[in-house]
Design brief:
mainly alpha; 10 helices
């Protein structure tokens, strides 16, 4: 029974990823989750109390995987500037990954304060990854610089999602801007 519930929960999360990837937060509804998984709508409520709970769990599951990919890219880079470059590039490469939609969905206003705080803390862990590299570059305020670099990444993510420019052009511009900014 526990294995069955675990499989159903995983199927619901996978369906949620697909819905978010295809249509954003508006597409993530309990009727759509029920349809995708073959469950009755009332059964979906046995697993999640709200859309916000679905998004929160997706972030709890997917964000560490995403962060590990960014961390691995940085670990493979030689030198602090290359680490900052890898930090920006890997995050922007992950925009096309459907797990990213869950992370983007964290800004949904329906999330309660506790959920937003958990997600904000996880995001802070991602930003913390480049503080050391920025310190190694001689930046006087590496924590502040890390937050500003993440702001560049966040803006680039929005541009890529809009589809107004080629993702590679946005990525190159973001990397140049981040590196020039932290070099001071």
């Amino acid at each position: 029974m526990a294995e069955h519930r675990s499989m159903q929960r995983a199927a619901l999360l996978d369906a949620a990823r697909s819905l978010l990837s295809e249509g954003g937060t508006e597409a993530l509804t309990f009727p759509a989750l029920a349809e995708r998984t073959g469950l009755a709508r009332s059964s979906v409520y046995e697993y999640f109390r709200s859309r916000a709970a679905v998004v929160e769990e997706l972030c709890e599951v997917d964000f560490p995987v995403w962060a590990a990919e960014v961390e691995a890219a940085m670990a493979a880079a030689e030198g602090p500037e290359a680490k900052v470059d890898a930090y920006v590039r890997r995050q922007l490469a992950l925009v096309e990954d459907r797990r990213h939609r869950a992370v983007v969905a964290i800004s949904a206003s329906e999330l309660d304060a506790g959920a937003r705080e958990k997600i904000r803390a996880a995001h802070g862990g991602l930003v913390a990854m480049i503080v050391e590299a920025l310190g190694d570059m001689g930046h006087a305020e590496p924590r502040l610089a890390a937050m500003l670099v993440q702001g560049v990444v966040d803006a680039a993510v929005r541009r890529i999602e809009l589809g107004a420019e080629e993702p590679s052009a946005v990525t190159e511009a973001a990397v140049r801007m981040a590196l020039r900014g932290v070099r001071g």
